[in-house]
Specification:
Elements (H helix, E strand, L loop, with lengths): L3 H9 L6 H16 L7 E4 L7 H4 L3 E5 L10 E5 L12 E7 L10 H11 E10 L2 H18 L4 H9 L4 H14 L3 E11 H12 L3 H8 L6 H4 L7 E11 L2
Parallel strand pairs: 1-2, 1-4, 2-3, 4-5
Antiparallel strand pairs: 5-7, 6-7
Length: 247
């Protein structure tokens, strides 16, 4: 049986949206719209079972190491490794990968970046939590999660174990990979999701109070146009938009 808020979400065009996830993807959607890439072939690496699909609203190929049911009907799931994507060069007009590199061993991150750029044809969007302030916030939220729920949250644990990527190194790696692959690229870096806003949103997400959960997981979607604009520094995430040019 469908939950009551699912009916409302469909009427509003925000079915299966979640505030913190929407703020991860909507800056990428804005960039796709600006460049006329809303209706092209899209690959998302590290999509999970939903990923960017609710915000893009057309069929997307998703690669991940596992998929949990239910898989979104507009996602074509392919099991695979981000370090060795099962696609030919320039297979997809757009490649998206966000909040994945922090779960990869530091020595393997440049290989993932290389694969993303290799299979991309026109635009690669890479979202990455970066910096000491972001890492400290993750540590504080991890401790809060354990106090409330009595167990670790695996994403926080991996963030701490792997260490968040360095923003400048990611930028340098992307430029070096462009030279290595002999691709003419430009890179624009954009900070998204103000840290204080994220802290407030995550406190609501971590809460075990039913009404608090409903407010932070659903009702706050109504404030999305305002929250989208709250990207003042310091931010939790950097998005690297890699444009690929063809002669």
């Amino acid at each position: 049986m469908k939950k009551p808020w699912h009916i409302v979400e469909k009427l509003l065009g925000i079915y299966r949206w979640h505030p913190t996830i929407a703020l991860r993807y909507l800056p990428i959607i804005d960039e796709l719209r600006k460049n006329g890439f809303l209706n092209v072939d899209v690959l998302e690496v590290g999509s999970g079972s939903i990923g960017i699909v609710p915000y893009l609203r057309h069929q997307v190929v998703g690669v991940d190491i596992a998929f949990l049911d239910p898989i979104h009907r507009n996602l074509t799931p392919i099991l695979g490794d981000a370090k060795k994507l099962p696609f030919a060069d320039a297979s997809f007009d757009v490649v998206v990968c966000t909040d994945v590199l922090e779960h990869i061993l530091p020595v393997e991150r440049s290989k993932v970046l290389e694969e993303l750029i290799r299979v991309g044809k026109h635009l690669v969007a890479i979202g990455v939590p970066c910096g000491l302030l972001a890492a400290q916030q993750d540590k504080n939220l991890s401790e809060l999660y354990q106090r409330i729920h009595g167990k670790e949250f695996n994403f926080f644990r991996e963030h701490e174990a792997m260490g968040l990527p360095d923003a400048e190194k990611i930028y340098a790696d992307i430029e070096n990979i462009g030279h290595k692959l002999r691709k003419k690229i430009s890179v624009i870096r954009q900070g998204t999701l103000n840290l204080k806003l994220r802290e407030w949103l995550m406190h609501g997400w971590i809460s075990d109070n039913f009404f608090t959960n409903i407010f932070f997981r659903k009702l706050l979607l109504l404030a999305m146009p305002i929250m989208k604009k709250m990207n003042n520094e310091p931010t939790y995430r950097q998005i690297y938009f890699v444009r690929i040019f063809h002669d």
